[in-house]
UniProtKB/TrEMBL annotation:
InterPro entries recorded: AKR, Aldo/ket_reductase_CS, NAD(P)_OxRdtase_dom_sf, NADP_OxRdtase_dom
Residues the entry annotates as binding substrate: H115
Family, as annotated: Belongs to the aldo/keto reductase family.
GO molecular function: oxidoreductase activity, acting on the CH-OH group of donors, NAD or NADP as acceptor
Active-site residues from the entry: Y51
Organism in which the protein naturally occurs: Rhizophagus irregularis
Taxonomy of the source species: Eukaryota, Fungi, Fungi incertae sedis, Mucoromycota, Glomeromycotina
Name of the protein in question: Aldo-keto reductase
Signal sequence region: none
Key words of the record: NADP, Oxidoreductase
Length: 293
């Protein structure tokens, strides 16, 4: 079992540097994946209302806590979920959060993020996106002040969306989650986060599998992995961590879940990091939020 280090958020809360991603984690696979992850030292679980798996993950966590042989308490876990685009706005956000908490069967969440800066119900240029974001953020601040969520944040916000949020927020977001891997090295977003003490959380670190399964061939990645005697997945996750990002690889495969957490025993050199940084080509594996008003 690996020891996963923590980062400390701008409100003093500790968050594991690595967690389990759960997008496309089907209900039938939840128990096996979450148990494997916990056995490998994972404590952070990244879900979303839109992933439709909060309830089974919550049930598995409860079983693990109730089974005293594991010695795990609620406080040992870091449970994160996200507000879907169509539930944006003050009232809708409060309602969606309350339903989410019930599905988890928890008294509080550790982290709640606004999933996207906009919704596909509106044209990208519609100014209502900004209104909705503001209402949602005010709702998150209320939930935070009531202790129903221990940290709050945003996801898929670009530099412009972050600047806008910083102009009116009372609470500076603790976390920004966005797509980050060597083919999409979003340095401007990392920099504005660092400047404002917002923790970066990277998603699709292994390009949804495509950066490591041969679909996209990156010879230098293989060379670096061979040099350090690790896999290409480990190099990509370590690259994120060395950019001070939390990484949340998704897998249902116990061997991969264990291997993905094993990234804290080696270090990429400055030259390795630069070689990987220079691969950036604005390649998104998920939706690109740049055009959202
Ligand atoms: N905020 C947002 O908008 C988004 C957030 N996310 C979050 O980030 C998480 C991770 O991103 P995601 O897009 O899922 O993609 P990842 O880059 O984590 O890739 C997941 C895929 O890679 C495979 N894989 C994982 N590890 C290995 C390995 N060591 N060797 C070979 N294959 C491997 C998995 O296969 P298998 O499961 O079969 O083992 C799965 O198919 C999500 O699950 C979600 O929690 C993701 C996208 C958007
Ligand atoms: O979290 C997510 C996983 O990826 C999906 C497809 O790109 C996104 O829609 C969603 O935001």
């Amino acid at each position: 079992m690996s020891t996963i280090p923590n980062f400390v958020l701008n409100n003093g809360v500790k968050i594991p540097a690595l967690g389990l991603g759960t997008y496309r984690l089907k209900k039938c696979d939840v128990e096996k994946a979450v148990r494997s992850a916990v056995a490998s030292g994972y404590r952070l679980i990244d879900s979303a209302i839109g992933y439709n798996n909060e309830e089974p993950i919550g049930k598995t966590i409860k079983k693990l806590i109730d089974d005293t042989s594991f010695g795990l308490k609620r406080e040992d876990f870091f449970i994160a979920s996200k507000l879907p685009p169509n539930d944006q706005g003050y009232d809708c956000c409060l309602k969606a959060f309350s339903c989410s908490l019930k599905r988890w069967n928890l008294n509080y969440l550790d982290l709640f993020l606004i999933h996207w800066p906009g919704t596909s119900k509106l044209k990208p240029s519609d100014p209502m996106h900004a209104e909705n974001r503001k209402g949602s953020w005010k709702a998150l601040e209320k939930l935070y002040s009531e202790g129903k969520v221990k940290s709050i944040g945003i996801s898929n916000y670009t530099h412009r969306h972050i600047t806008e949020l910083l102009s009116y927020c009372t609470i500076v977001p603790q976390v920004l989650q966005f797509e980050l891997h060597p083919l999409l090295y979003q340095k401007d977003v990392i920099d504005i986060c660092k400047k404002n003490n917002i923790q970066v959380q990277a998603y699709s670190s292994v390009g949804q599998g495509k950066l490591i399964n041969g679909e996209i061939n990156i010879p230098i990645l293989k060379e670096i992995a061979d040099k350090h005697e690790v896999t290409t997945a480990q190099v990509l996750l370590r690259w994120g961590y060395q950019h001070d990002a939390i990484v949340i690889p998704k897998s249902i495969t116990p061997e991969r879940i264990s291997l993905n957490a094993n990234i804290f025993h080696f270090e990429l050199t400055e030259q390795d990091m630069e070689s990987l940084d220079s691969l950036s080509e604005n390649r998104h594996f998920c939706w690109d939020p740049t055009d959202i008003y």
